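[recover] target loaded
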Protein backbone atom coordinates (compact mmCIF):
# COMPACT_ATOMS: atom_id res chain seq x y z
CA UNK A 1 0.00 0.00 0.00
CA UNK A 2 2.94 2.31 0.46
CA UNK A 3 3.39 2.55 -3.30
CA UNK A 4 -0.17 3.78 -3.91
CA UNK A 5 -1.00 7.47 -4.52
CA UNK A 6 -2.31 9.25 -1.44
CA UNK A 7 -5.75 9.70 -3.11
CA UNK A 8 -6.10 5.92 -3.20
CA UNK A 9 -5.82 5.44 0.57
CA UNK A 10 -9.50 5.98 1.52
CA UNK A 11 -10.69 3.65 -1.27
CA UNK A 12 -8.19 0.92 -0.37
CA UNK A 13 -9.05 1.31 3.30
CA UNK A 14 -12.76 0.89 2.58
CA UNK A 15 -12.12 -2.14 0.37
CA UNK A 16 -9.99 -3.71 3.08
CA UNK A 17 -12.56 -3.33 5.80
CA UNK A 18 -15.32 -4.60 3.54
CA UNK A 19 -13.52 -7.95 3.50
CA UNK A 20 -13.65 -8.25 7.35
CA UNK A 21 -16.79 -9.83 8.93
CA UNK A 22 -18.71 -7.93 11.63
CA UNK A 23 -22.09 -8.25 13.40
CA UNK A 24 -23.26 -4.66 13.11
CA UNK A 25 -24.00 -3.93 9.43
CA UNK A 26 -24.70 -0.23 8.65
CA UNK A 27 -25.19 -0.94 4.92
CA UNK A 28 -27.97 -2.83 3.13
CA UNK A 29 -27.63 -6.60 2.46
CA UNK A 30 -24.90 -7.42 -0.08
CA UNK A 31 -22.13 -5.39 1.64
CA UNK A 32 -20.12 -6.46 4.71
CA UNK A 33 -20.83 -4.68 7.97
CA UNK A 34 -18.59 -1.63 8.57
CA UNK A 35 -19.60 -0.02 11.86
CA UNK A 36 -16.17 0.91 13.11
CA UNK A 37 -14.71 1.13 9.55
CA UNK A 38 -17.33 3.78 8.72
CA UNK A 39 -16.36 5.64 11.88
CA UNK A 40 -12.76 5.70 10.72
CA UNK A 41 -13.63 6.90 7.21
CA UNK A 42 -15.80 9.60 8.75
CA UNK A 43 -12.70 11.14 10.35
CA UNK A 44 -10.74 11.46 7.10
CA UNK A 45 -9.89 15.03 5.99
CA UNK A 46 -10.63 14.04 2.41
CA UNK A 47 -14.30 14.28 1.28
CA UNK A 48 -15.72 10.82 0.46
CA UNK A 49 -19.07 9.31 -0.43
CA UNK A 50 -20.25 5.84 -1.50
CA UNK A 51 -23.05 5.04 -4.00
CA UNK A 52 -24.89 1.74 -4.37
CA UNK A 53 -25.62 0.36 -7.85
CA UNK A 54 -28.93 2.26 -7.79
CA UNK A 55 -27.07 5.61 -7.46
CA UNK A 56 -28.18 6.15 -3.88
CA UNK A 57 -25.79 7.50 -1.26
CA UNK A 58 -24.73 4.82 1.22
CA UNK A 59 -22.04 6.85 3.01
CA UNK A 60 -21.32 10.58 3.25
CA UNK A 61 -18.44 11.55 5.54
CA UNK A 62 -18.04 14.74 7.54
CA UNK A 63 -15.50 16.25 5.17
CA UNK A 64 -17.99 15.83 2.32
CA UNK A 65 -20.66 17.56 4.41
CA UNK A 66 -18.33 20.47 5.15
CA UNK A 67 -17.36 20.79 1.49
CA UNK A 68 -20.91 20.72 0.06
CA UNK A 69 -23.03 22.12 2.91
CA UNK A 70 -25.27 19.01 2.89
CA UNK A 71 -25.30 16.72 5.90
CA UNK A 72 -25.24 12.93 5.76
CA UNK A 73 -28.89 12.78 6.94
CA UNK A 74 -29.95 14.93 3.97
CA UNK A 75 -28.33 12.85 1.28
CA UNK A 76 -28.16 9.24 2.59
CA UNK A 77 -30.45 6.86 0.65
CA UNK A 78 -31.02 9.64 -1.97
CA UNK A 79 -29.38 10.82 -5.18
CA UNK A 80 -28.91 14.38 -3.92
CA UNK A 81 -25.17 13.98 -4.27
CA UNK A 82 -25.57 15.29 -7.82
CA UNK A 83 -26.95 18.65 -6.76
CA UNK A 84 -24.24 18.90 -4.11
CA UNK A 85 -21.51 19.06 -6.78
CA UNK A 86 -23.39 20.60 -9.74
CA UNK A 87 -26.15 23.17 -10.08
CA UNK A 88 -27.21 21.28 -13.22
CA UNK A 89 -27.30 17.93 -11.37
CA UNK A 90 -24.67 16.48 -13.65
CA UNK A 91 -23.77 12.83 -13.11
CA UNK A 92 -20.73 12.44 -10.89
CA UNK A 93 -17.76 10.28 -11.81
CA UNK A 94 -19.20 7.52 -9.58
CA UNK A 95 -22.48 7.69 -11.53
CA UNK A 96 -20.69 7.34 -14.83
CA UNK A 97 -18.72 4.33 -13.60
CA UNK A 98 -21.88 2.60 -12.29
CA UNK A 99 -23.63 3.11 -15.65
CA UNK A 100 -20.51 2.21 -17.63
CA UNK A 101 -20.78 5.59 -19.42
CA UNK A 102 -17.35 6.96 -18.71
CA UNK A 103 -17.05 7.96 -22.40
CA UNK A 104 -19.45 10.86 -21.62
CA UNK A 105 -16.86 12.46 -19.39
CA UNK A 106 -15.40 14.91 -22.00
CA UNK A 107 -18.90 16.20 -22.86
CA UNK A 108 -20.04 16.60 -19.24
CA UNK A 109 -16.78 18.07 -17.97
CA UNK A 110 -15.19 19.72 -21.03
CA UNK A 111 -12.72 21.87 -19.07
CA UNK A 112 -11.57 19.15 -16.70
CA UNK A 113 -8.03 17.80 -16.82
CA UNK A 114 -7.94 13.98 -16.78
CA UNK A 115 -4.99 12.57 -14.87
CA UNK A 116 -6.21 8.94 -14.62
CA UNK A 117 -8.69 7.31 -16.95
CA UNK A 118 -9.89 3.67 -17.11
CA UNK A 119 -13.12 1.66 -17.09
CA UNK A 120 -13.21 1.36 -13.28
CA UNK A 121 -10.94 4.14 -12.03
CA UNK A 122 -10.98 7.76 -13.16
CA UNK A 123 -9.58 11.05 -11.82
CA UNK A 124 -10.05 14.62 -13.03
CA UNK A 125 -8.95 18.06 -11.81
CA UNK A 126 -11.65 20.67 -12.31
CA UNK A 127 -13.40 23.76 -11.01
CA UNK A 128 -16.60 23.01 -9.10
CA UNK A 129 -19.37 25.50 -8.17
CA UNK A 130 -21.41 24.80 -5.01
CA UNK A 131 -24.88 25.91 -4.01
CA UNK A 132 -23.39 28.74 -1.92
CA UNK A 133 -21.82 30.24 -5.04
CA UNK A 134 -18.34 29.33 -3.92
CA UNK A 135 -15.95 27.85 -6.50
CA UNK A 136 -13.20 25.41 -5.62
CA UNK A 137 -10.66 23.51 -7.62
CA UNK A 138 -11.02 19.80 -6.81
CA UNK A 139 -9.03 16.68 -7.53
CA UNK A 140 -11.90 14.18 -7.92
CA UNK A 141 -11.41 10.42 -8.14
CA UNK A 142 -13.95 7.58 -8.45
CA UNK A 143 -13.47 3.79 -8.30
CA UNK A 144 -15.78 0.80 -8.63
CA UNK A 145 -15.89 -1.83 -5.84
CA UNK A 146 -16.69 -5.32 -7.12
CA UNK A 147 -16.90 -8.80 -5.55
CA UNK A 148 -14.63 -11.65 -6.76
CA UNK A 149 -17.19 -12.57 -9.43
CA UNK A 150 -17.07 -9.04 -10.90
CA UNK A 151 -20.49 -7.92 -9.63
CA UNK A 152 -20.56 -4.21 -8.84
CA UNK A 153 -21.14 -3.60 -5.14
CA UNK A 154 -20.63 0.16 -4.92
CA UNK A 155 -18.80 3.19 -6.30
CA UNK A 156 -16.57 5.35 -4.14
CA UNK A 157 -15.77 9.02 -4.96
CA UNK A 158 -13.26 11.24 -3.18
CA UNK A 159 -12.53 14.94 -3.41
CA UNK A 160 -9.35 16.76 -2.48
CA UNK A 161 -9.45 20.57 -2.33
CA UNK A 162 -6.61 21.96 -4.46
CA UNK A 163 -7.86 25.57 -4.67
CA UNK A 164 -4.90 27.12 -2.84
CA UNK A 165 -2.26 25.20 -4.85
CA UNK A 166 -4.17 26.03 -8.04
CA UNK A 167 -4.07 29.77 -7.29
CA UNK A 168 -0.36 29.47 -6.52
CA UNK A 169 0.22 27.68 -9.82
CA UNK A 170 -1.73 30.34 -11.71
CA UNK A 171 0.18 33.16 -10.02
CA UNK A 172 3.44 31.38 -10.75
CA UNK A 173 2.44 30.88 -14.38
CA UNK A 174 1.40 34.53 -14.61
CA UNK A 175 4.71 35.65 -13.10
CA UNK A 176 6.62 33.40 -15.48
CA UNK A 177 4.63 34.74 -18.44
CA UNK A 178 5.26 38.32 -17.31
CA UNK A 179 8.96 37.63 -16.85
CA UNK A 180 9.11 35.92 -20.24
CA UNK A 181 7.40 38.93 -21.85
CA UNK A 182 9.85 41.31 -20.20
CA UNK A 183 12.85 39.25 -21.21
CA UNK A 184 11.47 38.75 -24.70
CA UNK A 185 10.85 42.46 -25.23
CA UNK A 186 14.29 43.49 -23.98
CA UNK A 187 16.43 45.21 -26.60
CA UNK A 188 19.55 43.72 -25.00
CA UNK A 189 20.60 40.10 -25.38
CA UNK A 190 20.29 38.34 -21.99
CA UNK A 191 22.24 35.18 -21.12
CA UNK A 192 21.97 33.48 -17.70
CA UNK A 193 24.30 30.69 -16.55
CA UNK A 194 25.79 28.97 -13.50
CA UNK A 195 29.41 28.48 -12.47
CA UNK A 196 29.89 25.91 -15.20
CA UNK A 197 28.86 28.59 -17.77
CA UNK A 198 26.04 26.38 -19.13
CA UNK A 199 23.27 28.61 -20.42
CA UNK A 200 19.87 28.47 -18.71
CA UNK A 201 18.33 31.58 -20.31
CA UNK A 202 18.65 32.91 -23.85
CA UNK A 203 16.09 35.58 -24.83
CA UNK A 204 14.76 36.59 -28.25
CA UNK A 205 17.18 39.53 -28.55
CA UNK A 206 20.03 37.05 -28.06
CA UNK A 207 18.56 34.85 -30.80
CA UNK A 208 18.56 37.80 -33.20
CA UNK A 209 22.00 39.03 -32.15
CA UNK A 210 23.83 35.70 -32.41
CA UNK A 211 21.74 34.10 -35.15
CA UNK A 212 20.88 30.94 -33.20
CA UNK A 213 17.55 29.84 -31.73
CA UNK A 214 17.02 29.33 -28.02
CA UNK A 215 16.67 25.54 -28.20
CA UNK A 216 20.13 25.19 -29.74
CA UNK A 217 21.71 27.75 -27.39
CA UNK A 218 20.59 26.41 -24.00
CA UNK A 219 23.15 24.11 -22.48
CA UNK A 220 26.06 25.59 -24.41
CA UNK A 221 28.80 27.53 -22.62
CA UNK A 222 28.19 31.26 -22.41
CA UNK A 223 31.72 32.06 -23.56
CA UNK A 224 31.14 30.09 -26.77
CA UNK A 225 29.32 33.23 -27.98
CA UNK A 226 32.50 35.29 -27.52
CA UNK A 227 35.47 35.43 -29.86
CA UNK A 228 38.39 33.20 -28.80
CA UNK A 229 40.49 36.29 -28.02
CA UNK A 230 37.78 37.63 -25.65
CA UNK A 231 37.21 34.53 -23.51
CA UNK A 232 40.21 35.00 -21.20
CA UNK A 233 39.26 38.63 -20.59
CA UNK A 234 35.67 37.56 -19.89
CA UNK A 235 36.92 35.08 -17.29
CA UNK A 236 38.64 37.95 -15.48
CA UNK A 237 35.44 39.99 -15.38
CA UNK A 238 33.53 36.90 -14.18
CA UNK A 239 35.95 36.51 -11.27
CA UNK A 240 35.16 40.11 -10.22
CA UNK A 241 31.40 39.46 -10.12
CA UNK A 242 30.34 38.14 -6.70
CA UNK A 243 26.80 37.00 -5.77
CA UNK A 244 26.77 38.99 -2.55
CA UNK A 245 23.92 41.25 -1.29
CA UNK A 246 24.46 44.81 -2.46
CA UNK A 247 27.25 43.88 -4.87
CA UNK A 248 27.53 46.18 -7.88
CA UNK A 249 27.14 44.98 -11.44
CA UNK A 250 30.33 44.69 -13.47
CA UNK A 251 30.23 46.92 -16.54
CA UNK A 252 32.30 45.80 -19.53
CA UNK A 253 32.40 48.91 -21.77
CA UNK A 254 34.86 47.62 -24.37
CA UNK A 255 37.37 44.91 -25.16
CA UNK A 256 34.94 42.05 -25.81
CA UNK A 257 33.85 40.81 -29.23
CA UNK A 258 30.84 38.61 -29.79
CA UNK A 259 30.80 35.63 -32.12
CA UNK A 260 27.72 35.04 -34.26
CA UNK A 261 26.69 31.57 -35.41
CA UNK A 262 27.91 32.53 -38.89
CA UNK A 263 31.41 33.11 -37.51
CA UNK A 264 31.19 36.92 -37.78
CA UNK A 265 32.74 38.85 -34.91
CA UNK A 266 31.35 42.16 -33.65
CA UNK A 267 32.24 44.63 -30.86
CA UNK A 268 29.97 44.66 -27.82
CA UNK A 269 29.49 46.23 -24.43
CA UNK A 270 28.04 44.20 -21.59
CA UNK A 271 26.88 44.25 -17.98
CA UNK A 272 27.52 41.22 -15.75
CA UNK A 273 25.45 40.66 -12.60
CA UNK A 274 25.30 37.81 -10.08
CA UNK A 275 22.61 36.63 -7.65
CA UNK A 276 22.32 33.63 -5.39
CA UNK A 277 19.61 31.07 -6.11
CA UNK A 278 19.71 28.45 -3.39
CA UNK A 279 23.30 27.46 -2.76
CA UNK A 280 24.60 28.31 -6.24
CA UNK A 281 25.23 31.67 -7.90
CA UNK A 282 23.35 32.62 -11.06
CA UNK A 283 25.07 35.02 -13.48
CA UNK A 284 23.29 37.20 -16.03
CA UNK A 285 25.13 38.79 -18.96
CA UNK A 286 23.39 41.69 -20.70
CA UNK A 287 24.90 42.34 -24.15
CA UNK A 288 24.49 45.19 -26.60
CA UNK A 289 25.91 45.27 -30.15
CA UNK A 290 28.15 48.33 -30.20
CA UNK A 291 28.65 47.95 -33.95
CA UNK A 292 24.94 48.49 -34.56
CA UNK A 293 25.01 51.43 -32.15
CA UNK A 294 27.92 52.98 -34.02
CA UNK A 295 26.10 52.50 -37.33
CA UNK A 296 23.08 54.26 -35.84
CA UNK A 297 25.31 57.10 -34.64
CA UNK A 298 26.84 57.40 -38.12
CA UNK A 299 23.34 57.44 -39.63
CA UNK A 300 22.33 60.22 -37.22
CA UNK A 301 25.48 62.12 -38.15
CA UNK A 302 24.64 61.78 -41.84
CA UNK A 303 21.14 63.06 -41.20
CA UNK A 304 22.54 66.03 -39.32
CA UNK A 305 24.90 66.78 -42.19
CA UNK A 306 22.01 66.57 -44.64
CA UNK A 307 20.01 68.87 -42.36
CA UNK A 308 22.88 71.37 -42.21
CA UNK A 309 23.19 71.17 -45.98
CA UNK A 310 19.49 71.91 -46.43
CA UNK A 311 19.62 74.79 -43.96
CA UNK A 312 22.59 76.25 -45.80
CA UNK A 313 20.82 75.95 -49.17
CA UNK A 314 17.68 77.49 -47.65
CA UNK A 315 19.73 80.33 -46.22
CA UNK A 316 21.30 80.96 -49.61
CA UNK A 317 17.89 80.98 -51.26
CA UNK A 318 16.55 83.44 -48.72
CA UNK A 319 19.65 85.64 -49.06
CA UNK A 320 19.52 85.81 -52.85
CA UNK A 321 15.79 86.37 -53.19
CA UNK A 322 13.86 86.10 -56.46
CA UNK A 323 15.30 86.23 -59.95
CA UNK A 324 14.73 89.95 -60.44
CA UNK A 325 14.39 91.39 -63.93
CA UNK A 326 12.80 94.21 -65.87
CA UNK A 327 14.26 93.26 -69.25
CA UNK A 328 12.00 91.95 -72.05
CA UNK A 329 14.53 89.30 -73.13
CA UNK A 330 14.79 87.88 -69.60
CA UNK A 331 11.02 87.93 -69.14
CA UNK A 332 10.66 85.87 -72.31
CA UNK A 333 13.25 83.44 -70.93
CA UNK A 334 11.31 83.13 -67.64
CA UNK A 335 8.13 82.34 -69.57
CA UNK A 336 9.97 79.43 -71.18
CA UNK A 337 11.19 78.28 -67.78
CA UNK A 338 7.62 78.37 -66.45
CA UNK A 339 6.65 75.94 -69.21
CA UNK A 340 9.49 73.46 -68.73
CA UNK A 341 9.61 73.57 -64.90
CA UNK A 342 6.57 71.30 -64.23
CA UNK A 343 8.06 68.56 -66.44
CA UNK A 344 10.96 66.19 -65.72
CA UNK A 345 12.86 67.35 -68.80
CA UNK A 346 16.59 67.90 -68.36
CA UNK A 347 17.45 71.61 -68.57
CA UNK A 348 20.86 72.96 -69.60
CA UNK A 349 21.54 76.49 -68.32
CA UNK A 350 24.17 78.34 -70.35
CA UNK A 351 25.69 81.70 -69.65
CA UNK A 352 28.70 83.56 -68.37
CA UNK A 353 29.92 83.27 -64.80
CA UNK A 354 27.79 85.22 -62.36
CA UNK A 355 24.65 85.45 -64.49
CA UNK A 356 22.51 83.56 -61.92
CA UNK A 357 22.45 80.02 -63.28
CA UNK A 358 22.09 78.47 -59.83
CA UNK A 359 19.31 80.91 -58.97
CA UNK A 360 17.54 79.87 -62.17
CA UNK A 361 17.98 76.21 -61.22
CA UNK A 362 16.29 76.87 -57.86
CA UNK A 363 13.46 78.66 -59.65
CA UNK A 364 12.95 75.61 -61.89
CA UNK A 365 12.92 73.29 -58.88
CA UNK A 366 10.47 75.44 -56.90
CA UNK A 367 8.03 75.42 -59.82
CA UNK A 368 8.30 71.67 -60.45
CA UNK A 369 6.29 68.78 -59.06
CA UNK A 370 9.39 67.93 -57.00
CA UNK A 371 9.34 71.19 -55.06
CA UNK A 372 8.46 69.37 -51.81
CA UNK A 373 11.66 67.29 -52.14
CA UNK A 374 15.28 68.32 -51.94
CA UNK A 375 17.37 70.31 -54.41
CA UNK A 376 21.00 69.16 -54.26
CA UNK A 377 23.70 71.33 -55.86
CA UNK A 378 27.14 70.15 -56.95
CA UNK A 379 29.89 72.43 -58.28
CA UNK A 380 31.79 70.08 -60.55
CA UNK A 381 34.67 72.52 -60.94
CA UNK A 382 35.29 72.73 -57.19
CA UNK A 383 35.75 68.97 -56.70
CA UNK A 384 39.00 67.10 -57.35
CA UNK A 385 38.68 64.64 -60.21
CA UNK A 386 39.65 61.77 -57.88
CA UNK A 387 36.66 62.43 -55.64
CA UNK A 388 33.98 63.56 -58.09
CA UNK A 389 32.58 60.03 -58.58
CA UNK A 390 32.41 59.45 -54.82
CA UNK A 391 30.55 62.75 -54.40
CA UNK A 392 28.05 61.94 -57.13
CA UNK A 393 27.48 58.21 -56.61
CA UNK A 394 28.75 57.58 -53.04
CA UNK A 395 31.20 54.91 -51.92
CA UNK A 396 31.27 51.74 -49.88
CA UNK A 397 33.30 51.30 -46.73
CA UNK A 398 36.91 50.50 -47.63
CA UNK A 399 36.51 51.50 -51.29
CA UNK A 400 39.65 53.60 -51.05
CA UNK A 401 42.03 55.00 -48.46
CA UNK A 402 40.03 57.13 -46.05
CA UNK A 403 36.67 55.50 -46.83
CA UNK A 404 36.09 54.44 -43.23
CA UNK A 405 32.32 54.22 -43.60
CA UNK A 406 29.60 53.90 -46.20
CA UNK A 407 28.61 57.23 -47.78
CA UNK A 408 25.62 58.20 -49.85
CA UNK A 409 26.26 60.19 -53.00
CA UNK A 410 24.42 63.23 -54.28
CA UNK A 411 22.22 61.12 -56.56
CA UNK A 412 20.92 59.09 -53.59
CA UNK A 413 20.47 62.29 -51.60
CA UNK A 414 18.49 63.88 -54.43
CA UNK A 415 16.19 60.88 -54.95
CA UNK A 416 12.66 62.13 -55.76
CA UNK A 417 14.12 65.64 -56.03
CA UNK A 418 16.33 67.74 -58.32
CA UNK A 419 20.09 67.55 -58.85
CA UNK A 420 21.85 70.70 -60.06
CA UNK A 421 25.24 70.05 -61.67
CA UNK A 422 27.02 73.38 -62.00
CA UNK A 423 30.00 73.59 -64.37
CA UNK A 424 29.14 70.19 -65.87
CA UNK A 425 31.75 70.78 -68.58
CA UNK A 426 34.49 70.20 -65.96
CA UNK A 427 33.54 66.53 -65.43
CA UNK A 428 36.20 63.96 -66.43
CA UNK A 429 35.30 61.74 -69.38
CA UNK A 430 35.10 58.61 -67.16
CA UNK A 431 32.55 60.31 -64.93
CA UNK A 432 30.62 61.54 -67.96
CA UNK A 433 30.07 57.91 -69.03
CA UNK A 434 28.64 56.96 -65.62
CA UNK A 435 26.50 60.08 -65.56
CA UNK A 436 25.05 59.16 -68.96
CA UNK A 437 24.06 55.71 -67.61
CA UNK A 438 22.23 57.28 -64.66
CA UNK A 439 20.37 59.71 -66.90
CA UNK A 440 19.32 56.96 -69.32
CA UNK A 441 18.33 54.21 -66.85
CA UNK A 442 18.42 55.75 -63.41
CA UNK A 443 20.90 53.07 -62.27
CA UNK A 444 24.38 53.37 -60.75
CA UNK A 445 26.80 51.69 -58.32
CA UNK A 446 28.68 53.27 -55.48
CA UNK A 447 32.46 53.45 -55.76
CA UNK A 448 33.81 50.12 -54.57
CA UNK A 449 30.37 48.48 -54.65
CA UNK A 450 28.66 45.95 -56.87
CA UNK A 451 25.04 46.50 -55.83
CA UNK A 452 22.98 48.37 -58.43
CA UNK A 453 21.08 51.32 -56.97
CA UNK A 454 18.30 53.40 -58.47
CA UNK A 455 17.46 57.06 -58.11
CA UNK A 456 14.58 59.10 -59.47
CA UNK A 457 16.26 62.45 -60.11
CA UNK A 458 15.47 65.44 -62.31
CA UNK A 459 18.69 66.96 -63.68
CA UNK A 460 19.40 70.63 -64.20
CA UNK A 461 22.90 71.29 -65.56
CA UNK A 462 24.80 74.52 -66.06
CA UNK A 463 27.97 75.62 -67.84
CA UNK A 464 29.80 78.78 -68.84
CA UNK A 465 31.68 76.94 -71.57
CA UNK A 466 30.75 76.22 -75.17
CA UNK A 467 30.03 72.51 -74.93
CA UNK A 468 29.69 72.19 -78.71
CA UNK A 469 33.34 73.16 -79.07
CA UNK A 470 34.30 70.79 -76.23
CA UNK A 471 32.53 67.95 -78.05
CA UNK A 472 34.45 68.70 -81.24
CA UNK A 473 37.70 68.83 -79.28
CA UNK A 474 36.97 65.49 -77.57
CA UNK A 475 36.71 67.01 -74.08
CA UNK A 476 33.02 66.25 -73.70
CA UNK A 477 31.07 63.17 -74.78
CA UNK A 478 28.72 63.80 -77.67
CA UNK A 479 26.10 61.34 -76.38
CA UNK A 480 26.02 63.06 -72.99
CA UNK A 481 25.80 66.48 -74.65
CA UNK A 482 22.74 65.48 -76.66
CA UNK A 483 21.23 63.88 -73.55
CA UNK A 484 21.44 67.10 -71.49
CA UNK A 485 20.84 69.49 -74.41
CA UNK A 486 17.10 68.72 -74.44
CA UNK A 487 15.99 72.16 -73.25
CA UNK A 488 18.84 74.71 -73.39
CA UNK A 489 18.32 78.05 -71.64
CA UNK A 490 20.74 80.87 -72.53
CA UNK A 491 20.87 83.36 -69.64
CA UNK A 492 21.96 86.77 -70.96
CA UNK A 493 24.90 88.62 -69.46
CA UNK A 494 24.21 91.65 -67.29
CA UNK A 495 25.52 93.99 -70.00
CA UNK A 496 22.82 92.56 -72.30
CA UNK A 497 20.07 93.48 -69.84
CA UNK A 498 20.90 97.08 -68.79
CA UNK A 499 17.37 97.74 -67.53
CA UNK A 500 18.05 95.25 -64.72
CA UNK A 501 21.13 97.08 -63.38
CA UNK A 502 19.21 99.79 -61.41
CA UNK A 503 16.72 97.17 -60.18
CA UNK A 504 19.45 94.83 -58.93
CA UNK A 505 21.65 97.61 -57.56
CA UNK A 506 18.85 99.02 -55.39
CA UNK A 507 17.88 95.51 -54.27
CA UNK A 508 21.44 94.76 -53.11
CA UNK A 509 21.71 98.21 -51.50
CA UNK A 510 18.59 97.63 -49.38
CA UNK A 511 19.63 94.12 -48.43
CA UNK A 512 23.17 94.96 -47.31
CA UNK A 513 22.10 98.19 -45.65
CA UNK A 514 19.57 96.29 -43.57
CA UNK A 515 22.10 93.54 -42.83
CA UNK A 516 24.76 96.04 -41.70
CA UNK A 517 22.40 98.31 -39.79
CA UNK A 518 22.52 101.22 -42.28
CA UNK A 519 18.92 101.43 -43.54
CA UNK A 520 18.78 105.19 -44.35
CA UNK A 521 21.24 105.27 -47.26
CA UNK A 522 20.99 105.81 -50.99
CA UNK A 523 23.29 106.09 -53.98
CA UNK A 524 25.16 109.34 -54.46
CA UNK A 525 24.30 111.40 -57.54
CA UNK A 526 25.84 110.09 -60.74
CA UNK A 527 26.57 106.63 -59.35
CA UNK A 528 23.76 104.95 -61.28
CA UNK A 529 25.13 106.34 -64.57
CA UNK A 530 28.51 104.86 -63.77
CA UNK A 531 26.92 101.52 -62.95
CA UNK A 532 25.12 101.57 -66.29
CA UNK A 533 28.28 102.42 -68.24
CA UNK A 534 30.37 99.61 -66.73
CA UNK A 535 30.46 96.34 -68.78
CA UNK A 536 30.27 94.01 -65.72
CA UNK A 537 32.45 91.12 -66.82
CA UNK A 538 31.53 89.35 -63.56
CA UNK A 539 27.81 89.96 -64.20
CA UNK A 540 25.32 89.93 -61.28
CA UNK A 541 27.83 88.40 -58.86
CA UNK A 542 30.26 91.23 -59.48
CA UNK A 543 27.49 93.80 -59.05
CA UNK A 544 26.49 92.22 -55.74
CA UNK A 545 30.08 92.27 -54.44
CA UNK A 546 30.61 95.88 -55.54
CA UNK A 547 27.45 97.07 -53.75
CA UNK A 548 28.31 95.14 -50.59
CA UNK A 549 31.78 96.69 -50.47
CA UNK A 550 30.30 100.15 -51.06
CA UNK A 551 27.82 99.80 -48.19
CA UNK A 552 30.58 98.58 -45.84
CA UNK A 553 32.82 101.59 -46.69
CA UNK A 554 30.06 104.20 -46.68
CA UNK A 555 30.34 106.82 -43.92
CA UNK A 556 27.35 108.94 -44.89
CA UNK A 557 23.79 108.35 -46.16
CA UNK A 558 25.11 108.79 -49.70
CA UNK A 559 26.85 105.69 -51.01
CA UNK A 560 29.70 106.33 -53.43
CA UNK A 561 30.44 103.19 -55.41
CA UNK A 562 34.20 103.11 -55.87
CA UNK A 563 34.41 99.93 -57.88
CA UNK A 564 36.49 101.27 -60.76
CA UNK A 565 39.84 102.03 -59.09
CA UNK A 566 39.49 100.84 -55.50
CA UNK A 567 39.77 104.48 -54.28
CA UNK A 568 38.11 107.81 -55.00
CA UNK A 569 38.15 108.22 -58.77
CA UNK A 570 40.27 110.99 -60.19
CA UNK A 571 39.70 112.92 -63.36
CA UNK A 572 42.64 111.37 -65.24
CA UNK A 573 41.37 107.87 -64.47
CA UNK A 574 37.87 108.71 -65.63
CA UNK A 575 39.16 110.41 -68.76
CA UNK A 576 41.53 107.58 -69.76
CA UNK A 577 40.68 105.52 -72.86
CA UNK A 578 38.02 102.91 -72.07
CA UNK A 579 39.98 99.73 -73.13
CA UNK A 580 43.01 100.77 -71.08
CA UNK A 581 40.83 101.67 -68.10
CA UNK A 582 39.03 98.31 -68.18
CA UNK A 583 42.30 96.36 -68.32
CA UNK A 584 43.63 98.33 -65.39
CA UNK A 585 40.50 97.64 -63.39
CA UNK A 586 40.62 93.94 -64.22
CA UNK A 587 44.31 93.70 -63.32
CA UNK A 588 43.76 95.38 -59.93
CA UNK A 589 40.76 93.18 -59.07
CA UNK A 590 42.69 90.00 -59.93
CA UNK A 591 45.68 91.11 -57.88
CA UNK A 592 43.51 92.00 -54.89
CA UNK A 593 41.70 88.65 -55.04
CA UNK A 594 45.00 86.73 -55.28
CA UNK A 595 46.41 88.54 -52.25
CA UNK A 596 43.26 87.88 -50.21
CA UNK A 597 43.37 84.19 -51.14
CA UNK A 598 47.15 83.96 -50.54
CA UNK A 599 47.68 83.27 -54.23
CA UNK A 600 45.48 80.19 -54.17
CA UNK A 601 43.86 79.91 -57.60
CA UNK A 602 41.54 76.84 -57.65
CA UNK A 603 39.17 75.38 -55.09
CA UNK A 604 36.21 76.86 -53.22
CA UNK A 605 38.51 79.29 -51.35
CA UNK A 606 40.59 80.18 -54.35
CA UNK A 607 40.74 83.48 -56.22
CA UNK A 608 39.00 82.00 -59.28
CA UNK A 609 35.89 81.21 -57.24
CA UNK A 610 35.93 84.67 -55.66
CA UNK A 611 36.21 86.36 -59.06
CA UNK A 612 33.65 84.04 -60.67
CA UNK A 613 36.16 82.75 -63.21
CA UNK A 614 37.27 79.30 -64.27
CA UNK A 615 40.76 78.51 -62.83
CA UNK A 616 42.23 78.11 -66.31
CA UNK A 617 40.76 81.48 -67.35
CA UNK A 618 42.31 83.12 -64.29
CA UNK A 619 45.72 81.55 -65.03
CA UNK A 620 45.54 82.88 -68.61
CA UNK A 621 44.75 86.42 -67.42
CA UNK A 622 47.48 86.28 -64.74
CA UNK A 623 50.00 85.38 -67.44
CA UNK A 624 48.61 88.16 -69.64
CA UNK A 625 49.10 90.78 -66.91
CA UNK A 626 52.38 89.28 -65.64
CA UNK A 627 50.98 88.41 -62.20
CA UNK A 628 52.94 85.68 -60.40
CA UNK A 629 53.15 84.60 -56.78
CA UNK A 630 56.09 86.15 -54.90
CA UNK A 631 57.79 82.78 -54.41
CA UNK A 632 57.54 81.67 -58.04
CA UNK A 633 59.19 82.73 -61.26
CA UNK A 634 57.52 82.87 -64.68
CA UNK A 635 58.05 79.91 -66.97
Amino acid sequence: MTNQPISHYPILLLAGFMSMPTSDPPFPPGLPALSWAGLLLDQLPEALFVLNPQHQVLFWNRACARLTGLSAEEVTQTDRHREAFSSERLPTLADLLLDRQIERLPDLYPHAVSTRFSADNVRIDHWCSFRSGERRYLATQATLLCDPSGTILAAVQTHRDRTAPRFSEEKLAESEARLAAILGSSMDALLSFRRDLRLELFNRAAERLFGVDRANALGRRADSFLSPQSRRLFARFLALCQPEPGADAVWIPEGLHGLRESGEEFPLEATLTASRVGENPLFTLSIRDVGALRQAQHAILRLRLEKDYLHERLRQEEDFGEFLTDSPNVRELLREVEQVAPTDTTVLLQGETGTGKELMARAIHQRSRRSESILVSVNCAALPSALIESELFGHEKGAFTGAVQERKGRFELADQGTLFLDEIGELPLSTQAKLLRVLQGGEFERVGGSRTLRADVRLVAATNRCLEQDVQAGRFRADLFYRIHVFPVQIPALRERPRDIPLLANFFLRRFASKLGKPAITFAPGIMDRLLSYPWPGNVRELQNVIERAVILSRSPLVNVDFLTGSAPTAPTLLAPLPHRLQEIEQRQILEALKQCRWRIAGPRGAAARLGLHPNTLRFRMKKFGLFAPDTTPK
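[recover] notes: Residues 1-7, 19-34, 316-321, 564-577 have pLDDT under 50 and may be disordered.
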